[in-house]
Write a structure and sequence with these properties.
By secondary structure, the protein is an all-alpha fold. It is built from 10 helices and no strands.
Length: about 220
């Protein structure tokens, strides 16, 4: 083996190790950012829709509570969100309330709210699906694969608008559990879907490179 080939091989091993460390450390955070973007869009769209049907006071209360959350007044924000009971704004308030709790490390309390919203027949289906997605995300670091699959089973189908992020969460959980073959299947589904968002496809490509040596290992 020439010196050049040796250096190239060593460099490749170093880059693979760096990919692995970065994914293990930041993988869920990256997914979290993607989900937060969806939450923001869903919140804005929900506000536009329900603004036409609900009183201005409910909207004012919701955004006042959101401002409290934005300036790190979590306790006050939680109390404010809990007072909102108008249909539409109430569901959005529950999503924000659960997000605050999850951010404070109160995972069980957050998941309880997400699960309640996901099971509510009164809530819009898109918000119910979003609640399932958020619950799966906050549980991704500790839940069993069966639990995550149960929560996302209706969201990973080829016609689901949530399938891209749901697959990424599944891949992250399977990677954590060292189910590299399963993780690779989710990653390849993302890469093979022409409608996958560009940023998500880039992350999937990175994870694919990370998985290659793990899949090749005896």
């Amino acid at each position: 083996m020439s010196d050049e080939s040796l250096f190239r091989e060593v460099d490749e091993e170093v880059r693979q190790e760096q990919f692995k460390k970065l994914w293990v450390r930041y993988g869920n955070a990256v997914i979290g950012l993607a989900i937060l973007l969806i939450v923001a869009v869903a919140g804005y769209q929900g506000w536009r829709y329900w603004q036409q049907k609900q009183s201005e006071s409910a909207g004012d209360s919701f955004f006042a509570a959101a401002e409290l959350a934005a300036v790190d007044k979590a306790d006050e924000a939680l109390k404010a969100f809990a007072t909102i009971d108008k249909t539409g704004f109430a569901e959005l308030a529950k999503l924000r309330e659960a997000a605050i709790l999850a951010g404070d490390g109160k995972i069980e309390e957050a998941v309880k709210i997400y699960d309640s919203l996901a099971a509510s027949p009164a809530a819009d289906q898109s918000l119910r699906d979003l609640a399932k997605m958020r619950a799966a995300l906050v549980l991704a670091d500790k839940a069993s694969l069966a639990d995550i699959e149960q929560r996302l089973k209706e969201l990973v189908g080829p016609d689901s608008p949530w399938r891209h992020v749901a697959r990424e969460i599944m891949a992250s959980v399977q990677f954590r559990l060292k189910d590299y073959k399963g993780a690779d299947q989710q990653v390849q589904a993302i890469l093979g879907d022409p409608s996958s968002p560009a940023a998500l496809s880039q992350r999937a490509q990175t994870m694919s490179q990370l998985l290659k040596p793990l899949l090749a290992a005896p």
